[in-house]
Specification:
Number of strands: 6
Structural class: alpha+beta
Radius of gyration: 37 Å
Mean pLDDT: 87
CATH class of the largest domain: Mainly Alpha
CATH topology of the largest domain: Outer membrane efflux proteins (OEP)
Number of domains: 2
Distance between the termini: 58 Å
Strand order of the largest sheet: 2-3-5-6
Strand content: 5-15%
Shape: elongated
Largest sheet: 4 strands, antiparallel
Number of helices: 10
Length: about 500
C-alpha cells in the first residue's frame, strides 16, 4: 500500500504531465501547401486519341483516360513476363532501394526515441558502496577516527515540463523526417521500376537496330560482290567497288557500336537487380514481344502533388523545418524541470532497507536564458531561413513535376505522329531501294543511285526502330511522371528476399 501523500503527489504529477501535453506550442503551426490552381498540364488542348502506325511495334491505338487511377504494377500493362520477373528481382535485391528502406526504419526509430525522451520522465536506479576513513574532529570530537562502509541505493526521477511545446515540436520534426524518408523510399521505388522499364526498352531497341543493320550489311555485302564481278567484265569502275566497300565497312562500324551499347544496357539492368553483370541471368527483350498500353490514365492536376513522392518528400521537409522554428523559439523561453530521488543509505547491507535508512528529495527548477552570445537568436533565425529554403524547394519540385507531366504528354503526342511518319519513310525507302537495285542489275540505273538509296533506307530503318522504342519509353515516362501508383501498392517497397520467400511459401501452402 502506498501512503496517501505519495498518491496525492502522483496525481499532481499526472495532472502536470497532461497539462503540459495539452498546452499550446510556440512557433507556427504547419499548413499544407495548396495545390496549383490549374485544370490542364499543357498550354494547348491534347487529343484524346493518339496517331497510330499499324503493323509495327508501338503503333497500336492509345488514348488518355482523364481522372483514371494508376495501377501499382503499371509495368504489367506491357504484358512482358520477362520484364515482370526482372522488376520483382530488383525489388528484392537492389541495394539503393534497401538503403532507402533502412533509412526509413532508422527515422521511425528516431521518432520513438524522441517520444520517449521528450514526453516521459527519465527514471534511473543507482547503487553503490563506499569504504571511508573520517577523523572524529569532523564531528567536533577530540579522539580517534572512524572507518566504516556506507551502502546506498536510490531511484532518481527527472522530468522537463513542456510548458511552451519545445518537446512537442521536436517530436513533430522527427515525425516529419520519417515522412520524408518514407517518400524518399517511394521515390527510389518509382525510379527503379521506371529505369528498368526504359532500360529493357532500350535493350530491345538496340537489338532491333542491330538486326536491321545486319540485314542491311548483308545486302550491302551481296551488292559489293556483284559490283566486283561487274568490274571484272568492265561494266563498272574501280570507284564503284571501293564506294560500296566503304559503305560495308561503315555499316560494320555501326554494328560494333550497337553491340557495345547493347552490352552496356544489359550490364545496367544487371546492376538494377543487385547482381554482378557476370552473374546476372537476364532474358532478352524485343520490341515485337512487348505490348503498348492502350489506355493511359491522366490524373487531374490538383491530385498530382499528392501522388508524386518527390513532392510529398519536399512537403515533409517544410513540416520538419517549420517545427524546428518552434523548437528554437521555445529555447528562448524559461525551462522548467522537476527532479526527485528516493532511496536508502546504511552502514550494512542488512540495514539498507530498514526503517531508519530511507532518504528522499524533491526539487523544482527554472532556467531563463539571458545571454549566450546571441547563440539562441542566431539559431532561431537560421531555423526560419531553413524553413524558407524548404518552401522554395517545394515550389521548385512542384514546378518540375508539372513540367515532367507536360513533357511526357507532348512526347506521346508527337512520338505517335513521328512513328507513323518514320514507318511510312521506311516502307517507301525500301520500295525505292528495291526498284533501283533491280534497275541497276538491268543496267538502267547508275551505281550512284543505288549507293544513295541504300544509305537512305539504312537511315529510315534505324529511325523507325528508334521511333518505336521512343513510344514505349514515353509511355513509361508518363506513368512515372504521374507518380507510378505507389499508393495502390499493398506490400512494402523493398521486398527483401526473406519477406518475399515467406510470402511465397505461405501462398504455396494455401494452395
Amino acid at each position: 500500500m502506498f501512503p496517501k501523500k505519495a498518491l496525492s503527489q502522483s496525481r499532481w504529477l499526472a495532472l502536470v504531465f497532461a497539462g503540459c501535453l495539452s498546452a499550446c506550442a510556440v512557433g507556427p503551426d504547419f499548413k499544407q501547401p495548396e495545390a496549383p490552381k490549374t485544370s490542364s498540364y499543357t498550354e494547348s488542348t491534347l487529343s484524346k486519341k493518339l496517331a497510330t502506325a499499324p503493323g509495327v511495334p508501338g503503333g497500336t491505338d492509345q488514348e488518355f483516360a482523364e481522372g483514371a487511377d494508376i495501377e501499382a504494377g503499371w509495368w504489367e500493362l506491357y504484358k512482358s513476363p520477362e520484364l515482370d520477373l526482372l522488376i520483382k528481382k530488383a525489388l528484392q535485391q537492389n541495394p539503393n532501394l534497401g538503403a532507402a528502406d533502412a533509412a526509413l526504419r532508422a527515422a521511425q526509430e528516431n521518432v520513438n526515441a524522441q517520444i520517449g525522451g521528450q514526453y516521459f520522465p527519465a527514471i534511473g536506479v543507482g547503487g553503490g558502496v563506499t569504504r571511508q576513513l573520517q577523523p572524529s574532529a569532523l564531528y567536533g570530537l577530540p579522539y580517534g577516527s572512524d572507518t566504516y562502509n556506507l551502502y546506498n541505493a536510490t531511484v532518481n526521477v527527472s522530468y522537463k515540463l513542456d510548458i511552451f511545446g519545445g518537446a512537442r515540436r521536436t517530436v513533430e520534426s522527427a515525425k516529419a523526417q520519417a515522412e520524408y524518408q518514407q517518400f524518399q523510399l517511394e521515390s527510389a521505388y518509382l525510379s527503379l521500376t521506371a529505369n528498368i522499364v526504359t532500360g529493357a526498352i532500350k535493350e530491345a531497341a538496340l537489338r532491333a537496330q542491330m538486326q536491321a543493320t545486319e540485314e542491311i550489311l548483308k545486302a550491302q555485302t551481296n551488292l559489293a560482290e556483284v559490283t566486283e564481278k561487274q568490274l571484272m567484265i568492265g561494266t563498272v569502275s574501280k570507284v564503284d567497288v571501293t564506294s560500296q566497300r566503304t559503305l560495308v565497312a561503315s555499316s560494320q562500324v555501326d554494328l560494333f557500336t550497337y553491340e557495345r551499347n547493347l552490352a552496356f544496357a544489359r550490364n545496367q539492368l544487371a546492376v538494377y537487380t543487385g547482381e554482378l553483370p557476370s552473374n546476372a541471368s537476364i532474358a532478352q527483350f524485343n520490341l515485337s514481344s512487348m505490348h503498348l498500353p492502350e489506355r493511359l490514365p491522366l490524373s487531374v492536376p490538383s491530385s498530382l502533388v499528392r501522388q508524386r513522392p518527390d513532392v510529398r518528400a519536399a512537403e515533409a521537409l517544410i513540416k520538419s523545418t517549420n517545427a524546428l522554428v518552434g523548437v528554437s523559439t521555445a529555447n528562448l523561453l524559461p525551462q522548467f524541470t522537476i527532479t526527485g530521488a528516493a532511496g536508502s543509505a546504511a552502514l550494512t547491507t542488512g540495514a539498507l532497507f530498514g526503517p531508519n535508512a530511507a532518504l528522499w528529495s524533491v526539487a523544482g527548477g527554472i532556467f531563463q536564458p539571458l545571454f549566450q552570445g546571441g547563440q539562441l537568436l542566431a539559431q532561431r533565425r537560421g531555423a526560419i531561413a531553413n524553413y524558407e529554403q524548404a518552401v522554395y524547394q517545394y515550389q521548385s519540385t512542384v514546378l518540375k513535376a508539372f513540367q515532367e507531366v507536360a513533357d511526357a504528354l507532348r512526347a506521346l503526342e508527337t512520338g505517335a505522329q513521328a512513328l507513323r511518319a518514320a514507318s511510312d519513310a521506311e516502307r517507301y525507302a525500301y520500295e525505292t531501294l528495291d526498284l533501283v537495285q533491280q534497275q541497276y542489275k538491268l543496267g538502267t540505273a547508275s551505281y550512284l543511285a543505288v549507293l544513295y538509296y541504300q544509305n537512305q533506307y539504312q537511315q529510315a530503318k534505324v529511325k523507325s526502330v528508334s521511333a518505336q522504342a521512343t513510344r514505349f519509353s514515353d509511355t513509361a515516362a508518363l506513368f512515372a511522371a504521374l507518380g507510378g501508383g505507389w499508393w495502390n501498392r499493398t506490400g512494402p517497397a523493398f521486398q527483401r528476399k526473406d519477406i518475399a520467400n515467406k510470402d511465397q511459401n505461405e501462398t504455396s501452402g494455401n494452395n
